[in-house]
What does this fold into?
Amino acid sequence: MLESALTQDQQGRPLLAGQLTSSREWSDVNSFCHRAYMPLVTRPLNRGDDPNATLRKLLIGRITFSRFCFGVPTRVDEFDPAAGNILVVNTLRGSVRHPLDNRTAVDTVAGQSYVVDCSRTDYWNIADGHDLQFNLTIPHRMMEETTERWFGFVPDDKLWTHRCVFGTGGSAWLALLDYASKSIDATVNAVPDPLIEKRLEDMICLDLLRNWSGHAGIRLDTGARAAAPKHVRDAEKLMEELAPTAPSIAEIAEKVGVSARSLSEGFRRFRGVTPHAHLKARRLDLLRSMLGGAARGQTVASIARPMGFVNLGGMAKSYSERFGETPYQTLRGSRRS
It folds into this structure.
C-alpha cells in the first residue's frame, strides 16, 4: 500500500507535474517543511550533508498529505505550537525515532504510524536517512470539530497530549490512506468531487480518533457523556427538542434550573464547547435532516426561515463548513433520490 501515493493517479498520470518534488538544497527542504507541517528546525546529523529529499504534498479537504524524506540522517525539532497542527507520521521504509514521553523514545518502521498534537505537546524526530514518510498534517481545530459533531463533546488534553504508535503494514488505517490517495485526479491534483473529499476527510479523522483514543484509554462514545452533570445533559436534550425554535441560551439555562454562566462553564468543562456552539450544531443537523426530506416545491429559504435562520448567507457558510456541501446541494440531492 501507498507505494505510488502522491506520485501518480489511478490512470498512471503523474501528480504534481511541473512542480518541485525533489531537491538537494536545504532551503527548498526547509521551505517545504514549513508549508507542509509548520515552522520547525532541521539539523543534519552529519555536518555538511546535503539532502536528497522527496517533497510532495497535496490537500484532501483541510488535511495535508505529504510524501517526504530528507535522504540523509536528520534531526527535526522546535515544531511551532502556534501553527495549531496535529502530525501523523506513517513510515513506509527505514525508521524514524519519536518521543513517547519525557524519558522514552520509539523507532517506527515500515507500516507503523505515530501521532502527536504539536499544538499541545513538544515534539522532535530523527530520520535515519533511509526512511520514506507518508505524513498527514491535520488542524487541531478540525479534530475538535469532528469529535464534537460525532460524539457531542471535545476531549481534554488527556487525549491531545498523548503520543503513541499504532497500526501495522496491513492496517485498515493505511488502507484508508491508500484509498484516499488513489482518489486524487492528476488533472486537478485533488479529489475532484467535493462530497467525496468531505467524506474522506471525516473518515480519516474518525479512524485516527479511534486509534488514538484507544491507546490513550479514552472512551469517546460514552466516557465523557457519563461524566457531565445533570444540568448539562438536560440542556443537551432540550437543545435537541427545541432546535426548530431557536431558543436562547438564557431560556435553556432557566429551564434546567441554573444560570447561563453555570451552563456555559459546564459545557466548556465537560463538552469542550460553548452552549451556543452546541445549539448551533444541533440546529444545523436538524436543518440538514429537513432539507434531505424536503417535499417538492420547498426551497432552502422556506425551510430555514421558519427555524429562525434570518441571515441565510451566514447560515449557508456555517452549513458548508460543517457538512462539506451547501444547503442547496443537500436539497437537490434529496430530489434526485
